[in-house]
Specification:
alpha/beta; about 290 residues; about 40% helix; TIM Barrel; seven-stranded parallel beta sheet; globular; about 10% strand
């Protein structure tokens, strides 16, 4: 068994603020990936008044062995009130930047793309200055569904590649590495003004050379933003940690990413896809793009 190192300790949050966020989420009957996926940063993010909303859940149609989101329950029909409830949470939490993600809904013809669109539109209606980031599944390669999300005009479209090609069959058995890259490439082609983003997990048995190649692959499809974090095993039923990668290695990957041309690279043991996602507003101000 690999022993968790000192650098992966998380500071205790101030639970008064955390409780306020939880109260709003419970009142509006909303799910967050922070809670459903057992994110180690939940205390810090809830204390800061931020949360990554998990729509169309909490049950997922895929059983990725690294993820703690429930896949054993049967997915429910889409809730037509969810977009408005999510937008109300954005208003109550006074979010400048919101991240909306989802479970995989392979049972739906469009993979849930229309619900993403409705959520983006609802946020725009109630909080027009809030920037919107969506973290989407691969939609089973349904590119018409991707266009539905793009037409709702999020500022950031995130799709995680998660791991290196050699490990896909074990880590992401229902995913395809090339399909994930194609999704990001198509987004860039269809909407050049959208900032594209992706994330990688480290510590699953990949090599440094494989991470570097994945970073180059992401730049080859003009991905703008990259996150790299340490994989943590949610429970004994999930994939074990192969290696705890030291902070110095994450620093090296961050420097490499910047040299490759990513506009923003966030890499550290505790980095997750939406960790400090609000910093993207600074990126948008620094590198503004004209919508057309």
């Amino acid at each position: 068994m690999v022993v968790k190192p000192e650098w992966l300790r998380v500071k205790a949050p101030q639970w008064e603020r955390v409780g306020n966020v939880k109260e709003i989420l419970r009142d509006l009957a909303l799910n967050t990936v922070c809670e459903e996926a057992s994110c180690p940063n939940i205390g810090e993010c809830f204390h800061a008044g931020t949360a990554t909303f998990l729509i169309m859940g909490p049950a997922c149609t895929r059983a990725c062995p690294y993820c703690d989101i429930d896949f054993e329950k049967k997915p429910k029909p889409l809730d037509v009130t969810e977009p408005e409830r999510l937008a109300e949470a954005v208003r109550r939490l006074k979010l400048n930047h919101v991240v909306i993600t989802s479970v995989n809904r392979d049972d739906l013809p469009d993979g849930g793309a229309s619900q993403f669109g409705r959520c983006i539109q609802a946020v725009r209606a109630i909080s027009p200055t809030t920037t919107v980031e969506v973290l989407i599944p691969d939609l089973c390669g349904n590119w018409e569904a991707l266009e539905t999300i793009i037409q709702a005009q999020p500022e950031v479209l995130n799709h995680n590649t998660e791991t290196v090609p050699r490990l896909y069959r074990r880590v992401r058995p229902q995913g395809q590495y090339d399909r994930s890259l194609e999704l990001l490439q198509r987004t860039r082609h269809l909407a050049p003004w959208i900032y594209t983003k992706s994330g990688l997990m480290a510590g699953l048995g990949e090599t440094d050379a494989e991470i570097r190649q994945a970073m180059q692959d992401l730049r080859s499809v003009d991905c703008d933003i990259l996150t790299i974090g340490q994989y943590l095993q949610p429970s004994s039923k999930h994939l074990p940690v192969n290696t705890f990668v030291p902070p110095t290695q994450f620093e090296a990957w961050q420097k490499l990413g910047e040299s490759l041309g990513f506009l923003q690279v966030v890499a550290s043991p505790l980095t997750r896809s939406s960790y400090h996602a609000e910093q993207v507003r600074e990126l948008i101000e620094r590198y503004p793009r004209q919508r057309f």
